[in-house]
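Title: [Solved] GrpE protein homolog 3D structure

Original question kept below for reference.
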Amino acid sequence: MSTSRICYRAGRYIFGNSRNVDGRISLFFPTGGRRTLTTATEGKTETQNTPKTDSPESSPNFEELSKQIQALAEEKTSLEDKYKRALAEAENVRRIKTAEVEKAKNFAIQGFCKDLIEVADTLNKATECVPQEEISENKNPHLKGLYDGLVLTENILQKVFKKHGLAQCNPIDETFDPNFHEALFQQEVEGKPPNIVVVVSKIGYTLNGRCIRPALVAVSKQKST
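Solution (posted by the thread starter after getting help):
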């Protein structure tokens, strides 16, 4: 056996060294006690592995990030406001267009209605010209048959008018309204307050509430003293 081998065994017998779990060497001396050897490299490693805990406020980029977050929040608020305004504007445009379409649909036949009104006026004048005594006493059955046919035609025509929103305006004994009536003259009428329709020369017509022909009327006036 070599001399170095003998010295190694003698050292282990005398000092009784052992290796810890963490790799450090512990020596047992005959006098008792245990000493652990730690290398300088291990101390440096532990020091280097210790993380530095810097607060977020001490970071040089914290203030810059805060400004960016604030700018993004302001931009978000601005975009939301613009989006809501755009929605409101689009809704207003939709309502206006819907109203225009409805208006065009309701008054598209206005010109045609004005032409038919002339036909209704002619039928009305024809029935008014027939003497009532000729048809009431059945003196002229042919005239009565013609009269009944004209009245029936006029009634059917008025039903068609009503179906399409066309209505007569006969304002006798009503207060004069310049939106629906056209005054031809004024006259004093006993027992009538001023500004009352007393005579209707021509019946007016409205289409879905809009006046397409005003009624031609005479209006009462206050008596002169």
